[in-house]
Amino acid sequence: MTPTVGLTVARYACLMLPLAALAAAALPGSAALAALRPGAPMPDPARRRRLHGAGLLSFVAAATGIAALDAVAQGLGWWSYAPVDAAWRGLPVDLWLGWAVLWGPVPVLAHRVLRTPVALLLLLWLDLLAMPRLDPLVELGPHWWLGELAGIVAVALPAQLLGRWTARDLRLYPRALLQLTTFAGTVLWLIPTTAFTYGDGSWGHLWRLPSGVLPLLAQLAALVSVPALAAMREFAVRGHGTPYPWDPPKRLVITGPYAYLANPMQLSASLLLVVLAVGAASATLAVAAVAAVAFSVALAAPHERADLDGRFGHAWRAYRTQVRDWVPRLRPLPQPAATVWLDRDCGPCAAVTRWLLHRHPAHLVVAAAADHPQVLWRARYTGPDGHHARGAAAIARALEHTHLGWAYLGWLLLLPPVAWLAQQLTDAFITAPHPARPETAAHST
After folding, report:
1. What is the pLDDT of residue 438?
2. How much is the pLDDT for 300?
3. What are the residue ranges of helices labelled H in 186-334?
4. Treating both helix axes as pointing N-terminal to C-terminal, what angle do 116-130 and 157-168 enclose, rounded to 10 degrees?
5. Is 151:100 a contact under the CB 8 Å cutoff?
6. What integer pLDDT is reported at residue 44 of this predicted model?
7. 441: closest CA among 345, 364, 357?
């Protein structure tokens, strides 16, 4: 077999064999695999759609992770490739896609017969078997097996956990975090790197910016990401779901950033691409940002609206008459009132009470903590949906009822690392936890 024929055969095999495995695993109800376990129940259509959506999500996670792994592997000399057409930064696209299919959707769709440890061991065995046989397409370095182990741990494992948890609606917060990692990697690394590779601009230009400019751009990127991060948190905490269309919130979310804007995640993602485009001097990436907005408006928005209208009906339509897609309100939209309970006998708490009342919070009752049925040791926020927040988080929630500027600060304070730090600083330097009714503290629960 000539080298050219060998390359062609290897490339076809790298793509077609994983696609054949995917087709078998994606049969209605995974019937081909369910046959290995007689008597196993077939998924209903809704569960099957969710399963296929989970498979797609795991594919995106695996594809982004493999691209990052390959950049590290080529840099460390773990492996390289023969020069071929249709390659992304040297990585043959058919190998990339087949690899992502194997590490992502195939085991996810077959999760009823392939437990996670078994699937990972099988993937590692397949790679260790196949990689040496892909010569001359793949040229292995002396320590290539380190790359395989790193890939299984850092790429295949997260992709499998994300897909399996999504398919079975398990571990909401960890899967939301994995989604965030996947989307961040795609938006902040894969898309810009592709734009720099096939257009203009570069990461090198970004790193060579004057010493004062790069930190400024990093801070700007962090600022514009806050609405998206807060929106993802709101989906998980109050909607019990994620932004992924096949794993949506179970409740209509109209709080947090959604009380001001309908598309906080899309707006943040587009602005992040613009910030990167400016820093990297890339007109191509700026065009990609415009294309992302066009995709959201022309393709994603109609599907999203139809889905939300079908699931939430009048409540969704009423909400959409009061918020816009891309331009935020200055004050939160009308909704049932929440309550924040503050200790008016505590100096700092009383000052916060006066400050809040002076700003005429919308749809928020500022009540005395002493009037709460329980003895409160910290400020308490209670939303109309039953959501609770305590301490600094309660004040952050109250800020959402003032106006856009203070609400933004509230979203920042609610992000987990910031929320923890804010509470520690509050306890240490402002006011320590104390009972709002000292005379009954001994009876508190």
Report:
1. 61
2. 84
3. 191-198, 203-207, 213-237, 264-280, 283-295, 301-312, 314-320
4. 140
5. no
6. 73
7. 345
Task: Of 19, 103, 30, give the one whose Cα is nearest residue 61.
Answer: 103
Structure tokens at 366: 């500022």
Cα angle 102, 64, 59 (rounded to 5 degrees) comes to: 40
Residues sharing a CB contact under 8 Å with residue 323, sequence separation 6 or more, in sequence order: 258, 259, 260, 261, 262, 329, 333
Is the separation of the CB atoms in 103 and 155 below 8 Å?
A: yes
Angle at 127 between CA 125 and CA 129, to 5 degrees: 70
Please, are residues 221 and 275 in contact by the beta-carbon 8 Å criterion? yes
| Beta partners for residue 341, in sequence order | 367, 380
The SS3 assignment for 334 reads: coil
Phi-psi region of 92 (alpha: psi -120 to 50; beta: other; left: phi over 0): beta
Q: Is 313 left (phi over 0), alpha (psi -120 to 50) or beta?
A: left
| 8 Å CB contact between 377 and 435 | yes
How far apart are the C-alpha atoms of 298 and 287, rounded to whole Å? 16
- Side chain identity, residue 58: S
Dist CA 69 CA 219 (whole Å): 27
Give the pairing of strands 138-140 and 388-390.
Answer: unpaired
Which stretches of the chain score pLDDT less than 70? 1-6, 28-43, 438-445
**Alpha carbon distance 8, 172 (integer Å):** 43
Are the CB atoms for 185 and 159 separated by under 8 Å? no
Q: What tokens does 212 get?
A: 């004062």
Q: 326: Cβ–Cβ under 8 A, 6 or more apart, which residues?
A: 261, 263, 266, 267, 293
User: What distances in angstroms separate CA 53 from CA 57, 162, 171, 247, one per listed residue?
Assistant: 6, 11, 17, 8
- Which pLDDT does position 362 carry in this prediction? 95
